[in-house]
Amino acid sequence: MFMKKLDLGKDSINKLLLAFSIPCVISMLVNSIYNIVDQIFIGKGVGTVGNAATNVIFPLVLIFGAIASLIGNGTSANLSLKLGEGKKDEAKASLGSSITVITIISFIVGIMSYIFLPTLVKLFGSTENVYPYALEYGKIICLGAPFVIIYTALSNIIRADGSPKYSMIMLLIGAIINIILDPIFIFYFNMGVKGGALATIIGQIISCIIALLYIPKIKSIKLEKKDFKPNKSIFRILSLGLSSFITQMTVLVLFVFMNNMLTKLGIDTEFGADVPLSVYGIISKINSLYISSVLGIAIGSQPIIGFNYGAGNKDRVREVLKKVLIINFITGIVFNLIFVLFPSELTSLFIAKSDPNYDLVIKFAILTCHSFTLLMGLNALEITTSVVVQSLGNVLKATMVSFIRQIILFIPIACLLGLVLNKGIYGVLYAGAISDAICFIICIFIFGSEYLKLTKKDVKKDYQNDDIINQNNYKGKHIVITISREYGSGGRYVGELLAQKLNIAFYDKKIINLSAEKSGLSKEYIEKIDEKNTTMKVENNNDDRLFVAESKVIKDLAKNSCVIVGRCSDYILKDNKNVIKVFLYSDLESKVKRAIKYYGLDDKKALKEINKINKQRAKHYKYYTNRDWYNLDNYDLMINVDKKGIEKTVDQIIEFIKD
């Protein structure tokens, strides 16, 4: 069930989107199919009131999904960002904590929803005719709440871990079980809406078990027992998942609002209260296929966006955004055309022709598709924008996007047209298309602003030509000099002058560019680490990816004569012949003076900063080599630069090489 591990920083964007988004789309479609299959079989077996009952309970399903998304999407986004930044321990602790928290919350939600179900059914817009069916269906759905919340949350985590195929299969198995059991329970055992609900939760239980079995197999990190203890990282997770939560909660608010408005205003029309309630449920379930497709593509791109944004690969992030937006718009256009051209054919799948309300159901479905969902394809930009902004860590803006269509626009416009201007149920339906158009215009500016931020280059020193390259002019024997140096000892200047005198290549900062090409990490990300600590921090080793890349670069460079400064090059080349390993140090007073004069350190803080950086260098060296940085046995020469000065230190190294 596991797919080959993908490299989020180097593999082609097309390959990654196919690998992550397609399983994600299928997974989300499977969740939609759960509800659609129930609605089809219940509609055929029970009729209009059965369809209306599933519609009344659907807000509960949205609540379960919103809670799962709050922690599941938040955890997956955080996991991708932390892995991209190289903070593996933080990723572990947050993942284990989130699994524990979602398990506890899922059971609380299931119990509370069961207790308050009678009140919720009325709040969700049930009519008197529909109430007993909704209650019967809802009680069983509430029992399945813990299972659906847990497996939905875990499916997001599984995808972020690089196993979207596993997530897809997990959900697909549950859906197939549901599809098989639905007709058996509804028709063979004549269980009606109760049978549809039982089939649903049995499938959910199976999916949940498969999801839980994945936890010990997580690939990106290895969870330990201590990691499952809830910690403060849950607040970061909740903030990252807030946009997804609010998005689904706004859909919930919209659903409850529409249920109540349609039943209230439908009474004054030929359709009555039950038909609009039933049709809105049918159209919404079909529409969920569209939403699942677009949302699945966007969410599937989250690990790719999060990792590359965390690693500073802005070009790759821009490429992902462009492709996701194009795919989602094409998806939106296709679904939009289907709804406009085939409303009666779609609706007839959910109701038997023998149903006494068949003609009214079809008529109201056509009206809904030609008004409420007339511009539904434009929603692709809103959904994409919300998920993308969340992936980039801008939770506030993502949350605002989630509010725009349903809360800020649709509800006020629907109330204005339907109640204030007395357009009734028709005004409410046309408010949908108007809201979609306005929201689309707003999201153009929001998405555009985020994209433009990614096109701005950081104003940083370009190290491409920082190193002196003279290797083509060197005619002597093959020689490589590695220079390890204390901070403030003048080691870089010694190496630079040595390379000039020998007329060979000098490598220090240029290794940043070369390592970026090897690792898939951006130059800016590597440079940030290099500038901050003048070496890699052990806890930010990014799966040792950068060290491995630098090792490959250094071994390649050593094929020609050169001087290489730092980066454990003496250890990396320990088995190479013709390598001279030099360690440069100096007196404390001299290091402080040099750091103040040449590196711009504050004279009051210079000593502390020098000691801190040298300690980090020693720690880094020990971590990767298991050697003491100051041990004389590691080097061919150890020179106090201050006793000889830069020029004479260079001359001493050259004399050593000649000997």
List key phrases describing it.
single chain, 659 residues, mainly alpha, Rossmann fold, 5-stranded parallel β-sheet
Question: What features would you describe in this structure?
Answer:
Helix 2 runs parallel beside helix 6 and helix 19 packs across helix 20. With about 650 residues, this protein is mainly alpha-helical. Strands 2-3-1-4-5 form a 5-stranded parallel beta sheet, covered by helices on one side. About 5% of the residues have low confidence. It has 2 domains: about 450 residues, no CATH class; about 190 residues, P-loop containing nucleotide triphosphate hydrolases (Rossmann fold, 3-Layer(aba) Sandwich), CATH 3.40.50.300.
Q: How would a crystallographer describe the biggest sheet? A: 5 strands, parallel
Tally of distinct domains: 2
User: Structural class, judged by helices and strands?
Assistant: mainly alpha
General form:
elongated
By DSSP (H or I, 4+ residues per run), the number of helices equals 25
**What is the beta-strand fraction?**
under 5%
Provide mean pLDDT, rounded: 84
Assembly form of the protein: single chain
Computed Rg: 31 Å
Number of strands: 5
